[in-house]
Amino acid sequence: MRDSVDQLLRKEPEPSLPPIPSEPVASQPRQLKVMVVEDDADLLRLYQAKLARWPMATKVTGMYSAIAALLAIGRGGPDLLITDLNMPEMDGFSMLRMLHHTPELAHTTIVAVTGLDEAAIAARGGLPPDIQVLSKPIPFDKLQEIASAIAK
Asked: How far apart are CA 48 and CA 129, in angstroms?
């Protein structure tokens, strides 16, 4: 798996000329701020490589821990937060419960990507109702659909 990620990261994008704007720069779509919280370094690199290839303009921030993510979110929340649930120190469950009570993040779409099934999530106290849960392996197509809806 690591070799596959390394190959994907080494692959250079096809050279192309930047599009000529047909409208003033001010009307260009805004950059979608995405934060990915994942303690597995290889998966985090995979997220960053895949999300960088999305058709909409994105700024991807990767965090290895829920604590680091909370600190970064305190400086400005993302439009889309993608998080794992099983992490050391503070898990995704605790982080999401804290964020659920933060009114400044009402505009943030939160998605948990996990290997846990519904019963395991419920046994750990569940998640706030507005958080979408997606199963691993990482469904990049579904994440892109969610991001596209936010970017509109």
From this structure: 27
